[in-house]
Write a structure and sequence with these properties.
The complex is a heterotrimer of chains A (100), B (464) and C (207). Chain A is an all-alpha fold and 100 residues long. Chain A is built from 3 helices and no strands. Chain A is elongated. The termini of chain A are far apart. Chain C is built from 8 helices and no strands. In chain C, helix 1 packs antiparallel against helix 2 and helix 2 runs antiparallel to helix 3. The longest helix of chain C has 26 residues. The mean pLDDT of chain C is 79. Classes of the chains: A mainly alpha (100), B mainly alpha (464), C mainly alpha (207). At the B-C interface, helix 1, helix 5, helix 7, helix 8 and helix 9 of B face helix 2, helix 3 and helix 6 of C.
Chain lengths: 100, 464, 207
């Protein structure tokens, strides 16, 4: 397999994640879109690490991405739970209190 | 500046001296080059390929490796199916004896040893129910998720010296990762059943397993610090020699870590006294309340297989892997390598090692059953408190202590040369070309207890 | 078709199919299930790309940790069983068009680059070298045994670069980012616990 097939898989994950973020109204659904985007980026990093001379750096970066994604999910979930405690829903369209 | 000299920092100086002074008196000689062909799926694939070429059969690399993979799958699936069969029978007998009963006695003759098979046949015949309120797709998928997660962990579990499907360098990490996926199936089963009992069971399972994963991973790292390798085969080789070489006796921290690990592992495969996810007295049957027939039995197959998997990890990390502890395997190994019995001789020794490993693992599983039928079940808040307030800090202290222990030991001038502390595996370097090794270094390395007879000493300044 | 190609197509199909199913499913629990399928299969892609450690970390941290957290969140916030929040068909249609345009853009840009030439022309780094300092264990680093080199890189040492022939300068590793990540995780731990702490909801008739 060559590099471009892996990059295409990464592109599909990225696009799916972007659409997921844009269309889902459930807050946790939006979070899942973010995870997909990050994972698409990860596939690109690891593919470049394997096929180019960049070597280990791609794998290091993808490990950082995985760790940061876990942290981001924890905080976003805490926010979602907090929002649910106050509004009894996690429909992101309901979060319009600051709208002018 | 010579870049190679930077490696002096990486390789602790003490362990090298310790290696040279100690290994002359200890452990058999083992040549990694002789051992290599018996290791990992790739080698079986290469063996199949060679045989295909030898017998002039049509075939290329892909076909050979596919055949090798199929052989491994069949072997592991067989083990995965047969082990729960025996363990469930054993559990009934153990429970019966502990409760002063007989347990199964009739099916299959004397000890009722075919009872599980009869139950299995019954379960296959039963109707595969799906409740009306259930989320049908998730309800049907989640047993498979549990099954696949538990089954996948066996990919990296060695059953003996080199008897491993895929000899991953991160084998231990891989096993822990795959077994952590099991919780997802349980949570989905609980959620999709459309039943409050099942939902409670699933929620409890999620909270419990996510908490217990952390001390489990940390405790598994304590012996890894002593050996310097995540590869379970290498960790096994590290424990060659007498039972005092087993990692549980390596230092006080690994000794405590074994018991903490075993407690946490019991909890993470949701066995009593931590079986809150399926607490029969409160939640009917917890997450599998709504399941019946063959899907229900998948959960149990996965549970018993995971019991063996965590016990196998414990055997490799603490209890000497496939070594018997009195040196029989080592003498056989030496006999085989001296007399040149070829791959069949080495293979037979490995089969004995396999039997020893399975015996050790089974006795740990037996111990888990013993605990289950002896201790009462904890409450959910007690379970969480045990983990987060006690086991987690204890495991962190053990981790820290295991890191500092060698430094402490070698700071004492009395013990530096005499204490039986072996160097971590990280110092052992496998060099595929033995001819490149200087003779002076080879004399040291042949008396090493390690798998590799060929060692290159890094950063000692000699090469630089 | 070699084994690598076959496995690539299997894992790629499951990854992409899972991702698309995440977008198309309206039930949030099923979305979580498809996300698990997609991320698990992409861990398989990492194994194919000779990144054993990254693939395992993906399974342990992402699938076994983060997604359990997500499912937990789904269960805590679901208003009814199997809650659905429908996307309007018009929105979905629009999003589909945008998605195809974006995918076409990315795909065409990937395909228009001659990667062999680009790879040959970059000399930013060295491949993970076969120096024996990194050759520990039974497999070679190029075959996925990257745990040891990765650990060294996180400790701030790059033997895969520094020990390559013809290297004049020493490279820096990732010690500082590693420390920053660990402090960041601690901050996140405290912050998430603070944000999600149990607040007593004040009922109007009580106060």
């Amino acid at each position: 397999m060559d590099l471009s097939s892996y990059l295409l898989v990464g592109a599909v994950l990225f696009v799916a994640g972007v659409v997921c973020m844009a269309t889902k109204r459930n807050g946790i659904g939006v979070l899942m879109g973010v995870e997909l985007v990050l994972n698409g980026a990860n596939i690109n990093f690891v593919a470049f690490a394997n096929y180019t001379k960049l070597g280990l750096d791609g794998q290091v970066i993808s490990l950082f991405v995985i760790v940061m994604a876990a942290a981001e999910a924890a905080v976003a979930l805490a926010i979602a739970l907090s929002f649910y405690n106050n509004h009894l829903t996690i429909d992101v369209d309901q979060a319009n209190q600051l709208q002018g | 500046m010579n870049p190679a000299s930077t490696f002096g920092i990486v390789q602790p100086a003490f362990s090298r001296e310790g290696a040279c002074s100690l290994c002359a008196t200890q452990g058999p000689t083992r040549n990694l080059n002789d051992m290599m062909p018996l290791i990992a799926a790739n080698s079986l694939g290469e063996y199949v390929l060679e045989s295909l070429l030898y017998w002039k059969l049509p075939g290329n690399e892909s076909i050979a490796f596919t055949i090798a993979a199929l052989i491994h799958v069949v072997l592991i699936l067989t083990f995965f199916g047969v082990a729960p069969l025996i363990f469930i029978w054993l559990e009934r007998k153990v429970a019966g004896r502990i409760q002063d009963r007989l347990g199964p006695t009739r099916v299959g003759g004397r000890f009722g040893w075919l009872q599980t098979l009869a139950d299995g046949v019954k379960l296959i015949q039963k109707e595969d129910l799906c409740p009306a309120d259930a989320d049908r797709m998730l309800f049907r998928m989640s047993p498979y998720l549990v099954f696949v997660a538990s089954f996948g962990a066996f990919i990296a579990l060695p059953f003996g010296n080199g008897f491993v499907v895929q000899n991953l360098e991160v084998g231990l990490f891989f096993m822990l990762a795959l077994m952590s996926l099991e919780v997802l199936g349980v949570v989905f089963a609980g959620y999709s059943s459309g039943s409050k009992w099942a939902l409670f069971g699933g929620m409890r399972e999620a909270a419990q397993v996510v908490s217990y994963e952390i001390p489990m991973a940390i405790c598994a790292l304590v012996p890894v610090i002593a050996t310097g390798s995540l590869n379970l085969v290498e960790v096994g080789h590290f424990q060659a020699g007498g039972f005092w070489n087993w990692l549980i006796f390596q230092n006080p921290f690994t000794f405590v870590a074994f018991f903490v690990y075993f407690t946490v592992a019991t909890a993470s495969v949701k066995r009593a006294p931590f079986d809150l996810a399926e607490a029969e007295s409160e939640l009917v049957a917890g997450f599998h309340t709504e399941y019946s027939g063959i899907r229900w039995s998948y959960f149990f197959m996965a549970e018993y297989a995971s019991m063996f998997a965590v016990s196998g990890i414990a055997v490799f990390l603490f209890l000497g892997g496939w070594y018997d502890g009195v040196g029989i395997i080592e003498s056989l190994d030496r006999f085989v390598s001296v007399n040149g019995c070829g791959w069949l001789g080495q293979y037979s020794v490995n089969v004995i090692g396999l039997a020893i490993f399975i015996a050790k693992g089974t006795s740990l599983v037996f111990f888990q059953m013993w605990v289950r039928w002896t201790l009462p079940r904890l409450r959910i808040d007690q379970v969480m408190m045990t983990c987060l307030k006690y086991l987690l800090p204890i495991s962190c202290v053990l981790f820290l202590g295991a890191t500092v222990w060698p430094l402490f030991l070698y700071s004492l001038p009395m013990t530096a040369k005499q204490t039986d502390v072996r160097p971590p595996m990280g110092n052992r370097v496998y060099n595929p070309k033995p001819a490149a090794v200087k003779p002076s270094e080879k004399s040291h390395s042949t008396s090493h207890p390690a798998p590799s007879a060929v060692i290159i000493k890094e950063g000692s300044g000699k090469e630089a | 078709m070699t084994g690598h190609q076959f496995l690539f197509w299997v894992f790629a199909a499951v990854t992409c199919g899972g991702a698309i199913a995440v977008v198309l499913t309206q039930n949030v629990v099923r979305m979580a299930f498809w996300l698990i399928v997609s991320l698990g299969a992409s861990a398989g892609l990492f194994f194919l790309l000779n990144a054993d450690f990254v693939g395992t970390a993906q399974l342990l941290v992402y699938v076994g940790g983060t997604l359990v957290l997500l499912v937990f969140g789904v269960m805590l916030t679901a208003s009814g069983p199997f809650s659905k929040m429908q996307t309007r068909p018009g929105e979905l249609f629009l999003a589909g068009i945008v998605a195809f345009l974006l995918l076409g853009l990315l795909g065409s840009s990937v395909c228009s680059v001659d990667w062999d030439r680009v790879v040959a022309s970059t000399n930013a780094g060295q491949p993970i070298t076969t120096h024996h300092a990194l050759n520990q264990g039974y497999n070679r680093p190029e075959e996925g045994n990257t745990g040891h080199p990765l650990g060294m890189a996180f400790l701030g040492m790059r033997p895969d670069r520094d020990l390559a022939p013809g290297t004049k300068t020493l490279s820096t590793g990732y010690l500082l980012p590693f420390e920053i990540a660990s402090v960041h995780l601690l901050v996140v731990l405290i912050g998430a616990a603070y944000l999600a702490r149990a607040k007593r909801r004040i009922h109007p008739n009580e106060s």
